[in-house]
Amino acid sequence: MAREYNMDRRAYLATIGAGTAAGLAGCTGLTGGGGGNTIRPGTAPGFQPFEFRDGGELVGFDIDLTEAIVAETDYELGEWQTFEFDSLIQALTTDKIDMIAAAMTITDDRDETIDFSDPYYSANQSVIVREDGDFAPSSLDDLSGHPIGAQSGTTGETVIQSELIEPGKLEESNYNSYDNYVLAVEDLQNGNIDAVVVDEPVGETFADQRPVSVAFVYETGEQYGFGLRTDDDDRTDAVNSGLQAVRDNGTYEELRNKWFSG
Ligand code: GLN
Q: Looking at ligand 1, which residue's alpha carbon is closest to its atom 8?
């Protein structure tokens, strides 16, 4: 693992080249975090096409969009740091990172702890199943009695809790929580669970790449935002202006076309 991490980091540093010197210079200040002229972004790979590893390199829509946004501001982009999805908010509030870029849905619950940028992407949930299996649910109720999974701390997990477990439609023991959606989908492929609830764009990507398919979409009308600290209005304002700038200059559209088909 450690070795892999070093290689990832080297590959990453190589790809950002000269920009690194400025980024690191920004990070070596006395602030330790929170202050200075840098935005240190954090994400949770394994959520293709938003953030994932390609030959060790961290890539995806959120990665490109964040870099384009920060380039429009007076801030330097710090090094990317990766966490499990359900550790990102704590990484932000404890100053390990300055910005969450992880397809994170803006929710009231999260909004109590952190601030969000303006919305930058809309999504619903999808329910994915084995492609050639017999199980073909068409509504959440059809999941009753089946072992299912989602990634810890996500809105997919919230749907399972609030729509199935709380109303007594699914035994708690039938819910399996994973650190990462890739592990959930592997368990689905292996037959250990029968369905995974995951954001639709990511469910579609799993369906393109693995023997799974989207059984149905459950409309949640979610909006993704970048997460920032509540006391960090300067970065929040900069990110919002940067987001508007990349929408206005066509970069947003370009990146959407690059990472999403149709
Ligand atoms: N959009 C979902 C959420 O915010 C999932 C995000 C993710 O897994 N990266 O919970």
A: 154
Ligand 1 atom 5, closest CA: 154
- Give the tens place of pLDDT for each residue, 195-230: 999 999 999 999 999 999 999 999 999 999 999 999
Peptide bond into 49 cis (omega under 30): yes
DSSP letter, residue 169: S
Q: Give the whole-angstrom CA distance, residue 93 versus residue 250.
A: 32
Q: Delimit the domains of the chain by residue range.
A: 9-122+223-260, 123-222
Mapping DSSP to helix (H, G, I), strand (E, B) and coil, where does residue 32 land?
coil
CA of 27 to the centre of ligand 1 (A): 28
Residues touching ligand 1 (Cβ under 6 Å) are 44, 47, 85, 102-105, 151, 154-155, 199, 222
CA distance 41 to 159: 28
Helix or strand or coil: residue 220? Answer: strand
DSSP readout, 25-62?
A: HHHTSSSSSSSTTEE-EEE--SBTTTBEEETTEEESHH
Sign, Cα dihedral of 109, 110, 115, 117: negative
Domain 123-222, what architecture?
3-Layer(aba) Sandwich (3.40)
0.90 surpassed by pTM: no
Q: Tell me how far the alpha carbon of residue 154 lies from the centroid of ligand 1, in angstroms.
A: 5
- Assign domain 9-122+223-260 to its CATH superfamily: Periplasmic binding protein-like II (3.40.190.10)
